[in-house]
Design a protein that fits this description.
With 680 residues, the protein is α+β, with helices and mostly antiparallel strands. The strands form six sheets. It has a ten-stranded mixed beta sheet with strand order 3-4-6-5-7-8-9-10-11-12, sandwiched between helices. Strands 13, 14, 15, 18, 21, 24 and 25 form a seven-stranded antiparallel beta sheet that branches. A hairpin with a 5-residue loop joins strand 13 and strand 14. Helix 2 crosses helix 3. The relative contact order is 0.12.
Length: 680
């Protein structure tokens, strides 16, 4: 690497402002099989410029910018700082040619490597290439990095899923509601939307027709692969970390689904690395919720400057002198489904997981959770407690990461809403602060009266007034207790010893607060219900000691980070379109229904999901997404609808896409698939 010699820096509020920005729209990048990918370039306006390239490779349409997240402003920012930002539509999406029939296909990886090579060979590139992405696009970056192309020197990964099956499709072994409520209709709309009409001239309709004829809704793959197997394993990003040579900067959020994936990836990497975990939902930290925010584009700039240009953005603050791990330690914050701010502080650590002492609390009779101390002569008495499975438990659990679509909604509520239908175990009031950083674990002796059961475990902070805040949780379909790829039913009546890691956490319990464990048979807003009625029993005491293990840390000894504030102020609450979000019960029919409607600024998503207390095998979700594209004198609307339903024996899924152009019907198609209901 060598510094850019023609870079002249000025200062504006401490941030370099070096270049005016030139934009080149819809450049064509030819793949080996003749398919052309479309790219937008933001580059410095300077004669003879040569510098590093940064690639974003996306299925979400490169020109698409939701109203609540100013992602498009990131591209000119990096260009103004001496980079060529290359925003590329994945094959078969946006303005690129070809078709797309499944998520994270092997072809995507090969295309990404071709794009990296193409960038490095351009006259405006000095041969050094970086990649940046969030969510799906982060996974594409990391898959490319695992191939170790020599041109790729640095990557930034935000809110990445490293295991499609366990992280996205079926966490804990049960189908995830979000996959069918939002992601299914979203991609059934996006993947059939047309390229820009002005891009391809007379070829435009032929390119679009190829997409319409050969693409498939991604949701079909979810139903066709309800068990872990070759399809998901071929898309797994949780191995081969040692192959990554590019310096890797990871950004995660405690309110996102993928914090565990990001921290697992960080711990396994052997390249230069850094990780920041904030309180955030599924978005870039500079415009994420809950607050506080972080100016992440400046932190990304520092990373790219170091590993693509070989310089420090601020020589007085070199990266190598900073701790590589920063986590937001949450303090008690009153729960609310629409939450804008979390109390807490950012803490630096030299490693993840940090050095921690294990504190154990043993489950006991009458809902007690007793501290295990050396020399304790009063062991917990032998006993057991039982709960009857109800598929409607979990209405307070929240919907992780939906805050990206309308800021901050779908967060966890007061857990007392679920505690009456669950088993709870609670410590006495704490006499001093307890700071937990790492992965809590629950070791449990579990018994059930059916072969297919589900367990939701929640770790909660109980305030002196009784308010219960969700801190962490674990979900498990018990048929997956040994291995997701080889599920097996329980033997009714047999006692099983379970070792359950909860989601990683950084949380400080205040004096006077209590620690609570809650056990239920469902997480209704997040996991498809299991079909059988059953009773579950938890055992405790000598020989069957069930316990909670907390990783406790003392003072860090390191100074907290000194970050630039986010440039984006939170919108006033009255300027944020509130979602429609309702949970209702039919007291006679014994059903629970959850419905919502959100507007991201570029599309509208609706969902209605119903479960039956009398017939837990019969659940259904109907969802749709409307995506509008406008040009002068031209309006294309892509409407996608998905219906997913189950009975005792099968799961059935139908996806339909309808397209109108200037109000007239243009194209429509319906797909259906089904799968036997085995071990869930």
């Amino acid at each position: 690497m060598r510094p850019i010699e023609n870079l002249e820096l000025t200062s504006q509020e401490g941030v370099r402002v070096a270049f005016a920005v030139r934009v080149i729209k819809n450049l064509r990048i030819q793949m080996a099989d003749g398919i052309a990918l479309a790219a937008d370039l933001h580059m410095p306006e300077a004669p003879g410029f040569r510098g590093p390239a940064i690639i974003e490779y996306t299925p979400y349409h490169k020109g698409n910018n939701a109203a609540y997240g100013p992602r498009a402003t990131r591209y000119p920012f990096f260009a103004s700082q001496g980079y060529v930002f290359v925003n590329v539509d994945i094959r078969g999406t946006g303005d690129s040619e070809g078709f797309n029939d499944s998520p994270s296909s092997p072809q995507e990886v090969q295309d990404s490597l071709a794009v990296i090579r193409w960038c490095a060979e351009q006259p405006w590139c000095d041969g050094n290439v970086g990649m940046i992405g969030i969510s799906y696009t982060a996974g594409v970056c990391y898959d490319a990095a695992r191939q170790a192309p020599p041109e790729l020197k640095a990557v930034v990964l935000c809110q990445m899923c490293s295991d499609w099956y366990a992280g996205m499709a079926c966490p804990g072994g049960s189908l995830r509601l979000f996959a069918m409520e939002n992601f299914a209709p979203l991609m059934a709309a996006y993947n059939f939307a047309p390229p820009a009409p002005e891009l391809l001239g007379e070829q435009w309709e032929a390119v679009w027709r190829q997409r319409l004829d050969h693409s498939k809704p991604w949701s079909l793959a979810y139903i066709d692969n309800l068990q872990d197997g070759p399809f998901w394993q071929s898309r797994l990003l949780r191995d081969q970390h040692e192959r990554v040579k590019a310096a890797t900067f990871l950004i995660a959020g405690w309110s996102d689904w993928y914090g565990d994936d990001m921290l697992h990836t960080y711990a396994k990497l052997q390249c230069p690395k850094r990780v920041i975990v904030g309180p955030w939902t599924h978005n870039y930290p500079e415009n994420a919720w809950p607050l506080p925010r972080m100016n992440d584009r400046y932190e990304c700039l520092r990373w790219f400057d170091k590993y693509l240009k070989g310089l420090d953005t601020d020589p007085a603050q070199p990266l190598e002198r900073e701790p590589p791990v920063v986590v937001f330690v949450r303090d008690y914050t009153a729960p609310a489904p629409l939450r804008r701010t979390d109390a807490g502080y950012f803490r630096c650590e030299p490693t993840w997981p940090p050095c921690a002492a294990t504190q154990s609390w043993e489950l006991g009779s009458q809902g007690s959770l007793s501290l295990v101390e050396p020399g304790n002569k009063k062991p917990v008495a032998a006993g057991s407690d039982s709960f009857v499975y109800r598929p409607d438990v979990g209405i307070a659990a929240g919907r992780y990461a939906i805050g990206q679509f309308t800021p901050g909604w779908g967060m966890a509520d007061d857990q007392r809403l679920d505690e009456g239908l669950s088993l709870v175990y609670t410590t006495p009031g704490l006499d001093r602060p307890v700071e937990v950083i790492g992965v809590p674990r629950v070791r449990l002796y579990y018994q059930a009266s059916a072969g297919t059961t589900f367990l939701s475990v929640k770790l909660c902070d109980v305030a002196p007034d009784g308010t219960s805040v969700l801190v962490s949780k674990a979900l498990l379909n018990l048929t997956h207790r040994d291995a997701p790829a080889a599920p097996s039913p329980l033997v009714a009546g047999q006692v099983y010893h379970l070792d359950l890691p909860l989601q990683a956490v950084a949380y400080r319990f205040a004096p006077g607060h209590r620690v609570r464990l809650m056990f239920g048979g469902a997480d209704v807003l997040n996991a498809w219900p299991t079909p059988q009625h059953y009773t579950a029993t938890l055992h405790h005491g000598p020989g069957r000691a069930s316990c909670l293990e907390l990783p406790l840390v003392g003072p860090s000894g390191l100074s907290g980070p000194s970050w630039r504030p986010s440039e984006f102020e939170p919108l006033p609450q009255d300027q944020i379109p509130a979602p429609d979000y309702e949970v209702s019960r039919d007291l006679i029919g014994a059903t629970l229904t959850c419905s919502y409607k959100t507007n991201s600024g570029v599309g509208v998503n609706r969902s209605r999901y119903t479960v039956s207390l009398k017939h837990p095998e019969a659940a259904s979700v109907t969802s749709d997404y409307t995506y509008d594209m406008h040009r002068p004198g031209w309006h294309c609307q892509v409407y996608a609808k998905c219906i997913t339903e189950s009975d005792a024996h099968s799961m059935r899924h139908t996806a339909q896409t309808l397209i109108t152009v200037n109000g007239a019907a243009y194209w429509q198609k319906t797909w259906s698939t089904s799968a036997a209901r085995v071990h869930w």
